[in-house]
Amino acid sequence: MTEPTIQLFLSGRPWDSIYRTAEGQAVYKAELAMPEKRDIKIARVIPPIVDAEHATGVPTNSGDRQNSKDTYGHVARIECRMRRAVRIRMRDLDVAADEYLKPDKSGFWASLSNCVFTGPDGREYVWSLGNSTKLCLNDPERTPVARYHHRTLGLIGEARPARLEIFAAGKDMADIIVVTCICMEILRVAKRDMA
Fold first, then answer.
1. Taking the model in full, what pTM does it have?
2. What is the pLDDT of residues 123-149, one digit of tens each?
3. Using CA atoms, how far apart are residues 80 and 94, in angstroms rounded to an integer?
4. 2, 167 in Cβ contact below 8 A?
């Protein structure tokens, strides 16, 4: 199995959560937009431009960064209606969610639980729902790109928070991975609730 390049641990549900590294550094934030709380805003931490120690000449405690208030920059907005993601707005992308994340109807891997999309690099990717939600490059090798692990309560085995692993093949497209992962988890929950 390929080792993840990036591991992000979630503080709650994928659409209302802070995504943090194992060291506790916030990287992404997804939150329900006010006042209607139907849309989801996704933002990424903006790194500080100037290191506080260099700006003031006073040594800083390495724990201060974790305790300071993070500044976030807009990444995307997912419009939701009736517990479904209906539109993705991200940079120059403004598209209906079901047009961007299309059901995979091709070949052996075809399933109602798989969705295909074209990444920013022009290649095709497939999200597969299951015990863990997996993103692979749509190539013969099914190159792993990302995997979302649901939280475990510890009834059997160890309790673990939800986490999103991004492998080397996806490190340059982390924003779109986070956005499409949230859409897939909304879809998974909607399918579960309808069953």
1. 0.83
2. 999 998 877 889 999 999 999 999 999
3. 14
4. yes
Long-range contacts of residues 189-194, Cβ cutoff 8 Å, at least 24 apart: 189/83, 190/83, 190/84, 191/113, 191/129, 193/83
Residue type, 147: R
pLDDT tens digits for range 84-112 = 778 899 988 899 888 899 887 765 545 55
Identify each DSSP E strand in the chain by its residue range: 6-10, 17-20, 26-32, 40-45, 72-81, 84-90, 93-96, 102-103, 114-118, 124-128, 132-137, 144-149, 163-166
Domains of the chain, first to last: 6-194 (2.40.160)
Contact of 150 with 137, CB cutoff 8 Å: no
Name residue, tokens 């692979």.
Answer: 136
The secondary structure of residue 156, as a DSSP letter, is: S
